[in-house]
Design brief:
The complex is a heterodimer of chains A (about 675) and B (about 120).
Chain A: H1 14-36, H2 40-48, H3 53-84, H4 103-137, H5 146-168, H6 193-221, H7 234-266, H8 279-313, H9 320-334, H10 349-361, H11 363-377, H12 386-408, H13 411-417, H14 421-450, H15 457-483, H16 498-527, H17 569-576, E1 589-592, H18 597-614, H19 617-635, E2 641-644, H20 646-657, E3 670-671
Antiparallel strand pairs in A: 1-2, 2-3
Helix pairs in contact in A: 3-4, 3-5, 3-16, 4-5, 4-6, 4-14, 5-6, 5-18, 6-7, 6-18, 7-8, 7-9, 8-9, 8-11, 8-12, 8-14, 9-11, 12-14, 12-15, 14-15, 15-16, 18-19
Chain B: H1 3-6, H2 12-15, H3 19-42, H4 47-68, H5 79-109, H6 115-122
The chains are: A mainly alpha (about 675), B mainly alpha (about 120).
C-alpha cells in the first residue's frame, strides 16, 4: 500500500475527529434523503451523467460553495489562533504551546485556505456561471464540446475531493498555497502533504484548461445567426478574454508543477539549490501563471457587474466598445506583470521598474471600466435590488483594493512590506470583490436557472453582514500591515498587535452571521418558491438574449434558434414590440446525449492522484491504464446524441406558456436513430 | 443539423487524418527529444551551447508536429489552429524574453549559480 497505513489517520487530533463526525453526519443525511425520496436513479441519469451545460454549471457552483465553506472555516481558525497566541504568556490548548493549533497544523490550514479559495471555490463558481450563462447569451443550444465540459467538471471535483481526503488521511502541505522551493522538494518536505497539494492542483489545472478550450470554441463558433462580434453581450466578451488567459497560462503551471513532481518522484533537480538546478525558476514559472490567473478570476466578475448595472439602472451599458477593449487590455497586460510577486528576489532595477510600470498600466483599463459603470448609473433609474447591491459593493471593494494595489505596484514599497499583511489585505479585498460579484450574479441569474427569485429579507441581512465583516476584518489588517506584521504567523511575538487581532474577531463574528443568514436565505427561498415564481424576463428590465427563453431554461435552451438584430437583442425586441413573436412550426432538436464516461474518468483520476500521493504504484498503474482504456472505448461509442422531437418541444413550450412549472431534471429526448450503413 | 453530422467521416479534420503521418510524427519527435535528452544527460557540449541546441531541437519538433499532427494550413477547417499558433508566438517571446532578462541580472546579484558555473562544479 505504498506509504499508506492506519497510523496516517489523525485520530489523536480532536479538531479533525470533530470534522470527521460532522462530515459523516452530513454525508449520512444526504445519502438518507436521496434514498428516502428514491432519487438515486434521477441523480445518476439527470445529474451525474449529464452533459447539459446548465446542470454542469449548477454542479460547478455547488462544488464552489462547499469549498467556499471549507475555506471559510480555515479562515476562522487562522483568525482565532492569531487572536489567542499573542505574546509569551498566551495560553496553549490541545497540545499547542500558544493558541490551539500547533505550527504544523496552522501551516496546513493557511495552505489549504489559499489553495481552496483560489482554485476550488472562486474558479468553480466562475466557471459554473460562465457555463450556464455564456451559451444562453449567444443563443446556443449547448457548449461546443458537451462531453469535454462534463469531463472538466469531474476532474475539478476529483481535485476538490482530494483536498478533502487529506483532512482525514495523512496531512496537507504546510508551506503556503503557492509553494516554495527547495522547501517543497522531497528532502525538506518528505511527507505526503506536498504530494496532496501537487496532485489536487494538477487536477484542477487540467479541468480548467479543458473548460477554457470549450468556452472559447463555444463563443467563437456557436453564436446565433446575426450575433456579430460587436453584438455579443459584455459578459460573453469578458468570458472570452478570461478564457484566453486561462488557455495560455494554465499549461505553464502544469509544466511548473510537473517539473516539481519530477524532482520529487524521479530525483531530477530542476529546482534544487545546487547541481545545476535553479530554485528561482520555480517562482518565475509559478507566477507566469499566477498573475494572469487573478485576471482570469476578475474579468468574469467585471463582466457580471457589466450585466447587472445596466439592468438595474434601466439603461444601456455606457461605453460598450471601450468595455470590450478594456477587457482585452487587462488580459493583454496580464502576461507582462508577474514579476511583481517577487520584486525582492534581487532582479536588476531596470527589470523591477519595467514590472512596476506594467502593473500600474492595469489601472488604466480598470479605471475605464469603473467610469463606464458609474456613467451607466448616472441619470438611470437605479433600483437597489439584491444583485445591484452586490454590484455596488464590488465597485467599492474595487476602489479600495485597486488603489492599495497601486501602492503595491511600487517595487520600493514592496521592499518594505513584502510578505506582509498589507499585501494580504489588498488581495483579500480583490477576491472579495470577485465573491461579491458572484453573489450578485447568483441573485441575478438564479431565477433564470431555477424559475424563482431568491427572497430579499435574509438576503439583505446576509449582504450587510458581509459588508460589516469585511470592514471589521480588513481595516485592522491594513493597519497591521503598516505596523510591519508578516503573513502566515502561528504565534504573534508583539503584544501591541493583539488588540487589532481581537478586533478582527468582531468581523469574523459578522461573517459567521453572514453564513447563517445565507443558509436561511436559501432555505426560505426554497420554501416560498411558489410565491416567487417568475417568467422569462425575471427582472423586467434585462437586456440580453438569455432572458428571452423560459425560466427555468428548457433542456434545448431555445425552441427556435434566435435571429439577432441588435446588441441588446431582448431590449430591442421589447422596444420593437416583437417580444412575443414565434417563428414557424416546431422542428426536431438535435442534442448531445448523456454519458457516464466523464464521471468514471473523474473517479479514476481521483484514484490515480490518491495513489500517486501515497506512492501505491500498482494502483496508480491500474487507474492510469483504466483511464486510457475508458477513453479508447468511448472513442468507439456511436450513440452519443439524442433528438428531442418536434412534438416534445411543442408539448414543453405549451406547458411553459400555460405557466406550468417544468422541473429541471425532467428527461427529454430519445436516442438518435442511426442511419442505415 | 448539417449533413456532415450523420457521416462523421466527411468532416474535413477527419479527412486530414493519416496513420502514416502520425507514426512518422511520433518517430521523428521521439528521436529529436531523445537526442536532446542524451545531450543534456551526457554533458556532451558546453552549457550555453546546450541551451541553444535543445531550443533548436524543440523548434524543429514543434514544426514537425504542426505539420504532421495538427495539419496546420489556411483552409477554413484548419485556420483556427494556425491563427492560434501565430497568436501564441508573441506571448512565447514575451514570456521567455522577460524571464531571460530577469535571470540575466539575477546571476550577478545573487548567490544562485549560473548554468555555466553549476555545470562546471558538477563535472
Amino acid at each position: 500500500m505504498g506509504r499508506l497505513s492506519l497510523r496516517q489517520i489523525p485520530y489523536q487530533n480532536p479538531i479533525l475527529v470533530g470534522t470527521f463526525v460532522f462530515a459523516l453526519i452530513l454525508g449520512a443525511a444526504i445519502v438518507g434523503l436521496v434514498t428516502y425520496h428514491k432519487r438515486w436513479g434521477v441523480l445518476w441519469r439527470e445529474w451525474l451523467t449529464t452533459v447539459d451545460h446548465k446542470k454542469i454549471g449548477v454542479m460547478y457552483c455547488l462544488i464552489g460553495l462547499v469549498m467556499l465553506f471549507r475555506g471559510f472555516i480555515d479562515a476562522l481558525m487562522i483568525r482565532t489562533q492569531q487572536a489567542i497566541a499573542v505574546g509569551p504568556h498566551s495560553p496553549g490548548y490541545l497540545g499547542a504551546l500558544h493558541g490551539y493549533l500547533t505550527p504544523f497544523h496552522a501551516g496546513q490550514i493557511f495552505t489549504a485556505h489559499g489553495l481552496i479559495m483560489v482554485v476550488f471555490a472562486a474558479t468553480p463558481l466562475l466557471v459554473g456561471l460562465m457555463n450556464i450563462i455564456v451559451p444562453l447569451q449567444i443563443g446556443a443550444r449547448d457548449m461546443a464540446y458537451p462531453y469535454l465540459n462534463a469531463l472538466g467538471l469531474w476532474l475539478t471535483a476529483a481535485g476538490a475531493a482530494l483536498v478533502m481526503v487529506s483532512l482525514f488521511i495523512g496531512n496537507f502541505a504546510h508551506g503556503g498555497w503557492y509553494g516554495f522551493v527547495p522547501y517543497f522538494e522531497l528532502p525538506y518536505s518528505p511527507g505526503v502533504g506536498v504530494d496532496y497539494w501537487l496532485w489536487a492542483f494538477q487536477l484542477s489545472v487540467l479541468g480548467t484548461t479543458l473548460g477554457s478550450i470549450n468556452l472559447i470554441a463555444t463563443i467563437v463558433k456557436m453564436r446565433a445567426p446575426g450575433m456579430t462580434w460587436m453584438r455579443m453581450p459584455i459578459f460573453t466578451w469578458a468570458s472570452l478574454s478570461a478564457n484566453l488567459i486561462a488557455l495560455t497560462t494554465f499549461p505553464v503551471l502544469m509544466v511548473c508543477l510537473a517539473l516539481l513532481a519530477s524532482d520529487r518522484y524521479f530525483g531530477t533537480h530542476f529546482y534544487t539549490a545546487g547541481m545545476g538546478g535553479n530554485l528561482m525558476l520555480y517562482n518565475d514559472l509559478f507566477w507566469v501563471w499566477g498573475h494572469p490567473e487573478v485576471y482570469f478570476l476578475i474579468l468574469p466578475a467585471f463582466g457580471m457587474m457589466s450585466e447587472i448595472v445596466p439592468t438595474f439602472s434601466e439603461k444601456t451599458l455606457f461605453g460598450y466598445a471601450t468595455m470590450v477593449i478594456a477587457s482585452f487590455a487587462i488580459g493583454g497586460v496580464s502576461w507582462g506583470v508577474w514579476l511583481h510577486h517577487f520584486f525582492t528576489m534581487a532582479a536588476a532595477p531596470s527589470v523591477n521598474s519595467f514590472y512596476s510600470v506594467t502593473t500600474m498600466l492595469v489601472g488604466i483599463p480598470t479605471g475605464v471600466k469603473v467610469f463606464n459603470w458609474i456613467f451607466t448609473m448616472y441619470r438611470g433609474r437605479v433600483r437597489f435590488e439584491l444583485p445591484m447591491m452586490w454590484a455596488v459593493l464590488s465597485l467599492f471593494l474595487l476602489l479600495v483594493g485597486g488603489l492599495t494595489g497601486m501602492m503595491n505596484a511600487f517595487a520600493t514599497n514592496d521592499y518594505m512590506w513584502h510578505n506582509g499583511v498589507f499585501v494580504v489585505a489588498h488581495f483579500h479585498l480583490m477576491v472579495l470583490l470577485i465573491a461579491a460579484s458572484i453573489f450578485g450574479s447568483v441573485e441575478y441569474w438564479f431565477p433564470k436557472v431555477f424559475g424563482f427569485k431568491l427572497e430579499a429579507r435574509w438576503g439583505k441581512a446576509f449582504f450587510w453582514c458581509i459588508v460589516l465583516g469585511t470592514g471589521w476584518v480588513f481595516i485592522p489588517m491594513f493597519l497591521l500591515g503598516f505596523a510591519g506584521m508578516t503573513r502566515r504567523l502561528d504565534y504573534i511575538p508583539y503584544t501591541q498587535w493583539g488588540p487589532y487581532l481581537r478586533v478582527m474577531l468582531v468581523g469574523m463574528g459578522f461573517y459567521i452571521l453572514a453564513v447563517a443568514f445565507f443558509f436561511m436565505h436559501l432555505y426560505v427561498s426554497l420554501r416560498d418558491r411558489a410565491k416567487n415564481r417568475v417568467g422569462a424576463d425575471a427582472w423586467g428590465t434585462s437586456r440580453s438574449l438569455e432572458w428571452m427563453t423560459h425560466s427555468p431554461v428548457p433542456a434545448y435552451n431555445f425552441a427556435f434558434v434566435p435571429q439577432v438584430h441588435a446588441r441588446d437583442e431582448w431590449a430591442w425586441r421589447k422596444e420593437q414590440g416583437v417580444a412575443d413573436l414565434k417563428s414557424g412550426p416546431y422542428r426536431d432538436i438535435h442534442m448531445p446525449g448523456n454519458t457516464g464516461v466523464p464521471f468514471v474518468l473523474g473517479a479514476l483520476a481521483l484514484a490515480l492522484a490518491f495513489a500517486l500521493t501515497w506512492r501505491i504504484w500498482w494502483l496508480s498503474g491500474l487507474a492510469l491504464a483504466l483511464c486510457v482504456a475508458v477513453v479508447i472505448v468511448r472513442a468507439f461509442a456511436e450513440d452519443t446524441d439524442t433528438v428531442i422531437s418536434a412534438q416534445d418541444v411543442e408539448r414543453a413550450e405549451r406547458r411553459y406558456h400555460d405557466g406550468e412549472v417544468v422541473p429541471m431534471e425532467e428527461p427529454m429526448g430519445r436516442p438518435t436513430p442511426r442511419p442505415a450503413t | 443539423m448539417s449533413a456532415s453530422h450523420h457521416d462523421p467521416l466527411s468532416h474535413p479534420e477527419v479527412q486530414l487524418a493519416s496513420g502514416r503521418g502520425y507514426v512518422a510524427n511520433f518517430l521523428v519527435t521521439t528521436l529529436l527529444m531523445g537526442f536532446g535528452l542524451w545531450l543534456s544527460v551526457t554533458h556532451a557540449v558546453a552549457p550555453l551551447t546546450l541551451v541553444a541546441v535543445t531550443s533548436g531541437i524543440a523548434a524543429v519538433a514543434v514544426g514537425v508536429q504542426a505539420y504532421l499532427l495538427l495539419h496546420m494550413n489556411l483552409s477554413e477547417a484548419q485556420i483556427w489552429h494556425t491563427v492560434a499558433m501565430i497568436l501564441f508566438l508573441p506571448l512565447f517571446v514575451v514570456t521567455i524574453g522577460l524571464t531571460a532578462w530577469m535571470f540575466h541580472g539575477l546571476y550577478a546579484r545573487t548567490m544562485i549559480m549560473s548554468p555555466h558555473i553549476g555545470a562546471f562544479l558538477h563535472r
